[in-house]
User: What shape does this take?
Amino acid sequence: MKQKSTSQSAFFNLRVLIGLFVVLTGVFLAVIGFGTFSGLTASSAKAQQTHKIINIAGLPPGFDCATIHESGIDRMEGLRAGLIMIACGEATGGLDSPYSAFTRLLNNLEAPLAYGGTDVNLVTGTETPPHIIQSETYSTVNPDNPLQICVADNDSRGAAVNNFSGISCSTDGGTTFTRVTTAAGQSPFANTFGDPVVLYNKPTGTWFTVWLDGNGSCTLGGYKSTTPTVATSWSHFCVHSNGGDDRESGWADNNPSSPNFGNMYVSWNDFNVGGGGLQVSRSTDNGVTWSPEIHVTSSFIRDVQITGDASGNGTIYIAGMDEGGGGFPHNDTNKIFRSTNGGSTWTNTYTGSPFPGPGVQACTDNTYFTCMFNNQGGSVPTFWRHEGWGEPAALNNVVHLVYAQHGAGSDPGDVFYIRSTDSGVTFSAPFKLNSDTTTRPQWQPNISVNPTGTVFAMWYDARESTTCTRGNPGVPCYRMWARESTDNGATWLPDDMFSDVVSPLPGQSDPNIVAGYAGDYDYGSAISSTSVTSWDDGRVAINGASQQNTFFDQQAAGGGGIPCGDLVSFQVRCKHLTGGDKLQAKLTLTDTSHSGEQVTITVDGNPNSVTINGNQAQLQIPNEPLGQHTVELTDPAGCFAPVVTNCN
Assistant: This one.
């Protein structure tokens, strides 16, 4: 997980430092050999000037807080770095919300509006304040059984026992989820500190999670299981030991036609190597063993995400970011690294032009990072750090990348997309995915592509609000918006709403997490039938305050034999007639070339096969019950947003 105002996403206060000596040893040993970095930030300068010596259980005795910048801790995003920052007084734990009474959130809907279906809360079971914070998600669907979906996230319910990781799984295709919980009320991932990755290994039918790890000398590892909903089934494995490890990502090659079928890859930043060098480890035996770290860069380039070509050609990509020394304002630069030999070696194939990073000001607790919101009150008035990080995806040598950058004038952020058709060597000019003309922020996007070329992008979007107030459930702030391409990114459908509500800006009251933290990424993925993704949402209030929960939704992929480009319009109405209302849906195509073929129109979850006659397909349902009905073209899917109509 990533902490926003410290350099790393941190959950901790001193109470949870016990038992972390081995975990942190690699980070602190690195202090001995590191030189001084350029671009000293205000908070890191303070750390170097203040020789605060910490002698408490859980940290190496005599650790000097003045070495925080020297060891790169103020540029890390993970929970372990946050632990150090809080303990050294360089970051503040969560703050209580001033909102003592629950205020009803406006426009809270129970049905989807456009892209996607009904939002699903991933957090089930008991929530006991103050350890009620979930954020930062990684969503994966089982390609062998699309009804099985798992989402890994950061979860602070185990803060008291050094367990900051969680997973929720669905066995009904994403309609419901259950948070996997042990008899002790915790996740199965003991001694792990967030930064979620969840992968499915097709040859063995095994699920793998990867976390910042604190088991023995392991600093990057996780747990695996063939029955992910059974808490006792998860067993530990280690990817890397004795490192200064941070911001990992992962990808599994599940295409049987790939020369690397079954391989799994984990990338991360190791701050014991060149002050944050980008590294990779791979498993070629279905996760039984993991290679020593493979050096991608010898100096600090932020690991954004590793991915592979979904076509099965074996090519692997890493998106990285040069953050220009941090601070605000600053310029970011996108980079692409490529491997064509199963991850053995890597080449920097693309370095983009610098662009202004998103945000409104440097984060209060750690001025290396930029925050998306300010004027939030309290001792930490800034909130939600974000440097522009996004996600890559690839299919048939076409590489997709989304990211955020500062908008024009006072606009804190817009979401952009670039596309390469030559395996990541050159990219198109940036294309802005959010079409609004407001100066409200858009940030933290993710993207996925399925094997048939449906590309789906999602991001946080505040265009529907005028202001945001952290923790106040009565002030709607942002909604998840999305945009889809059905031709591998060549053209895009309009952007539209994805989540069902305009969420408040959630608070962060857990004292074990940095006060300004709200997650650093949400990684989506796709199979042929669907694109899945999750996000940090503030609609659920506890003790009168909006707080961070993770929610899930999915978008059915464009399918069937009819391309979306062959469709003109999809219209729905409820016609009032004597004796009862008639629901009517009409699909219009560009010509008659698909006459005689069938499409599927789904009404309130019930599919109806309709034959195309000429250039139209029409569905009529007599005596439709009064009330609201959701009508969607589900085959081909993803061509039009669902339509909500009323029969009255």
User: Anything to note?
Assistant: The longest helix spans residues 21-33. The chain has three helices and 45 strands. Helices lie at 21-33, 42-49, 79-87. Residues 14-87 form one domain.
